[in-house]
Amino acid sequence: MSAAPLLQVDDIVVNYRSGPSAVDHVSLAIPRGRTLGLVGQSGCGKSSLARVIAGLAVPASGTVRLGGAVLPTPRGRADATRIQMVFQDPGSALNPMHTVRRTLTELLLVHRRAPDRRAATDRAVELLELVGLGANVLDARPRGLSGGQRQRVGIARALAVEPEVLIADEAVSALDVSVQAAVLNTLRDLGSRLDLTMLFISHDLAVTRYVADELAVMHRGEIVERGLPDDVLRNPQHEYTRSLVAATPRMDGPALSAAEEARPL
Ligand SMILES: Nc1ncnc2c1ncn2[C@@H]1O[C@H](COP(=O)(O)OP(=O)(O)OP(=O)(O)O)[C@@H](O)[C@H]1O
Ligand SMILES: [Mg+2]
């Protein structure tokens, strides 16, 4: 990844009240249009780092740069939409009382991505089509949608404000394996169609490898290894990465082999 990075994160430290730093001097960079896969076991600090990058938490130290300029902490209104996050639990991330139409059109109007309600509805349908849904879900509420559909609405919502960077934090982890593969394919497809810059976070190496142009392995708050996915998998350098690769029994498991049709391993 030699292009100048769109997102550059330097020396981030996150401390909670007790214990060692949850994020311990982490730096990473993602070129425009690329996807960095961040993988590591539960509790290693992935979400703590993601929240800092998204501007949802203030780090003890470190900087987040977008297009070369340091983003202020806390993030100001002008920068608030530039990095968006898709969360693990699509149910709790959406207002249960609001229809998909209301969720998307209100966001589009508030952030001036559409001039009026009619244009906002048209744009909402475009967004839904982008994530593999259609106008038929406009009047559904979250409980009327499947887990996969809810997560697709979550992705559409994140894309509605036209972010420069999308962070997917365990975005497919709560889904059934077959649905997981389909949503992963949508994310990967969006990445190339929209030239999105993505930070894709998962505890699952097989899933991460599938969408990532580059991998970073996180262990106890630190990035212990990074590189091209095939290199990291074939020749892991760090002891923790070796255990992660060994613990991933089949890199071409059933869910991913269905999804692999578009890009064989
Ligand atoms: N708000 C908080 N207050 C105190 N400790 C926290 C808080 N959030 C996270 N931690 C701790 O910081 C460490 C890193 O947590 P974090 O959620 O960033 O890990 P993670 O890699 O995202 O894990 P998971 O894969 O389970 O989502 C853990 O030890 C966690 O218990
Ligand atoms: Mg997490």
CATH superfamily: P-loop containing nucleotide triphosphate hydrolases
Helix proportion range? 25-40%
Strand content: 15-25%
Q: What is the CATH topology classification name? A: Rossmann fold
Radius of gyration: 18 Å
Could you explain how this protein is built, in words?
The protein is an alpha/beta fold. Helices cover 36% and strands 22% of the residues. The chain has helices at 46-54, 90-93, 100-110, 117-130, 147-160, 177-193, 205-211, 229-234, 239-246, 254-259, and strands at 5-14, 23-31, 35-39, 61-66, 69-70, 83-86, 165-169, 197-202, 214-219, 222-227. It has a 6-stranded mixed beta sheet with strand order 6-7-8-3-9-10, sandwiched between helices. A 4-stranded antiparallel beta sheet has the order 2-1-4-5, covered by helices on one side. A hairpin with a 2-residue loop joins strand 4 and strand 5. It is globular. The two termini are 20 Å apart. Mean pLDDT is 90; it is low at 252-265. Adenosine-5'-triphosphate (ATP) is lined by residues 16, 22, 40, 42-48, 170, 203.
In brief, what are we looking at here?
With 265 residues, the chain is of the alpha/beta class. 36% of the residues lie in helices and 22% in strands. The strands form 2 sheets. It has a 6-stranded mixed sheet with strand order 6-7-8-3-9-10, with helices on both faces. Strands 2-1-4-5 form a 4-stranded antiparallel sheet, with helices on one face.
